[in-house]
């Protein structure tokens, strides 16, 4: 079985469990368009341009994840002194929690609209969890596992600014865009993927 066949099967299983296409994309670390392709057109059309990143060797070990969080915390220190680390649900939350602990910062949690996405554009919005720190009037760093297109970072940044917060940077384990900034927001990454 090829890796694409494996991804198609995993996408199908996640759909059967009731996950939205956006949640499937998040689980598989692919773009929403790639997740939709895996669910609907994989046998008949060429896939969207994307890179699959297998994170299980890191994400399944709290010790390895802590090591990555320490690297990100060290990189963040070079870009300012944040008050709040904003973890992006779902995969960014464990890393953000550890980064916040490393830096002695508060922790905020953001649920992006992509998690509610199921193949059609909608007017669904992302939201901050009320059970965690506020970003109002605070210096923030957005933490996630992977940047694929950058749309989630831009969404979170807009939500932070609407609440009166300031975005210092975005920190991720893997940057699939392989660029140092995103609309003026520095992107700090442990790894960058370059297409040749």
TrEMBL record:
GO terms for molecular function: DNA binding; orotate phosphoribosyltransferase activity. SUPFAM superfamilies: PRTase-like (SSF53271). It holds the Pfam family Pribosyltran. Residues 65-185 form the Phosphoribosyltransferase domain. One of its GO terms (biological process) is UMP biosynthetic process. Keywords: DNA-binding, Glycosyltransferase, Transcription, Transcription regulation, Transferase. It comes from the Archaea. CDD domains: PRTases_typeI (cd06223). PANTHER family: OROTATE PHOSPHORIBOSYLTRANSFERASE, PYRE-LIKE PROTEIN. Belongs to the purine/pyrimidine phosphoribosyltransferase family. GfcR subfamily. Contains an N-terminal DNA-binding winged helix-turn-helix domain and a C-terminal regulatory domain (or effector binding domain) resembling phosphoribosyltransferase (PRT) domain. HAMAP family: GfcR. This is Transcriptional regulator GfcR. The gene is gfcR.
């Amino acid at each position: 079985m090829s890796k694409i066949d494996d991804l198609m099967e995993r996408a199908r299983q996640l759909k059967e469990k009731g996950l939205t296409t956006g949640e499937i994309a998040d689980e598989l670390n692919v773009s929403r368009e790639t997740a939709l392709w895996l669910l609907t057109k994989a046998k008949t059309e060429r896939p969207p341009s994307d890179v699959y990143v297998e994170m299980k060797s890191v994400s399944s070990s709290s010790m390895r994840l802590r090591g990555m969080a320490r690297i990100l915390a060290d990189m963040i220190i070079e870009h300012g002194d944040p008050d709040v680390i904003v973890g992006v649900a779902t995969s960014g939350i464990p890393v953000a929690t550890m980064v916040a602990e490393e830096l002695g910062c508060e922790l905020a949690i953001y649920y992006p609209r992509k998690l509610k996405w199921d193949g059609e554009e909608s007017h669904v919005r992302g939201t901050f969890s009320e059970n965690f720190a506020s970003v109002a009037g605070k210096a923030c760093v957005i933490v996630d596992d992977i940047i694929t297109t950058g749309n989630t970072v831009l969404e979170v940044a807009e939500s932070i600014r609407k609440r009166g917060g300031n975005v210092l940077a975005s920190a991720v384990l893997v940057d699939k865009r392989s660029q140092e900034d995103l609309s003026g927001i520095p992107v700090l990454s442990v790894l960058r993927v370059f297409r040749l």
